[in-house]
Amino acid sequence: MVKRLISTILSAAAIAAASPAQAQDIDGYIGAFGGWGGSRIWSNHDPSLAQRQYPLIIRHAYSAFGGAYAGVGYGPVAGEIGWMQQPGYHSYVEALAPTRHTVQTIKGSALFARALLRAPRDWPVQPYAFAGAARVKSQSREVGVCPTCQWNGGDFRVDMRATRPYVGAGIEIPLYGPVSGRVEFGYIPRASSSFWSGTRDYTLGSVALQVRF
């Protein structure tokens, strides 16, 4: 699906470049963004989890995140590269047989590159769609305490690396001169995956401030 969308964007760029009515000067821009997002687990690799007893489970799957990007555009198309600190995940679990508790955190960051298909710059509100890839680097850490276990708890860490599709859409709103704002929704499927963390999709809602030059 991502390859097909990128192919569509490139085809649109070729058509626009061949049409004098659509041709525009090349524009460059930089921006910074922040927002709220998180992960949703859709696959866990441990089939015995459902058979265990958990008197208390507290999960915080969504949190703030932020990053920065730079882009170059020509008419209705643009290309961007950027970096983001991904939303964090935090959970606290108490379990029986044996009695123990564990704290898990998942933190990560991502480098991304994406192609944009965007509305003309003279529109008062400029919607856009994007598709690309994100190189995600994350770590799942579990710190457990088990007074009755021989190991008396532990600190388990799993490093995860993955290159995943990064797709979404947004709107850009001119503010003053070269400054504009963005409101955007993004999605990275299977951004992190391991035996201990399960497979997690990330949804990302953000606002950005950018400057053209």
Q: What is the CA-based Rg, rounded?
A: 21 Å
Strand content: over 45%
> Mind telling me which CATH architecture this is?
Beta Barrel
How many β-strands, per DSSP? 10
CATH C-level: Mainly Beta
Q: How many structural domains? A: 1
* Poorly predicted regions: 12-23
Q: What number is the mean pLDDT? A: 85
Task: Provide the CATH topology.
Answer: Porin
Structural class: mainly beta
- Distance between termini? 33 Å
Assign an overall shape.
elongated
- SSE order: HEEEEEEEEEE
Largest sheet: 8 strands, antiparallel, barrel
In which range does the helix fraction lie?
under 10%
- Total count of helical runs of at least 4 residues: 1
Strand order of the largest sheet: 1-3-4-6-7-8-9-10
How does this model look, in words?
This protein is mainly beta and 213 residues long. It has a single domain, classed as Porin (Beta Barrel), CATH 2.40.160. Helix content is 8%, strand content 68%. The chain has 1 helix and 10 strands; from the N terminus they run αββββββββββ. Strands 1-3-4-6-7-8-9-10 form an 8-stranded antiparallel β-barrel. Strand 5 (89-95) and strand 6 (100-118) form a beta hairpin. The longest helix is centred in the N-terminal third of the chain and has 17 residues, at 2-18. Residues 12-23 have low confidence and may be disordered.
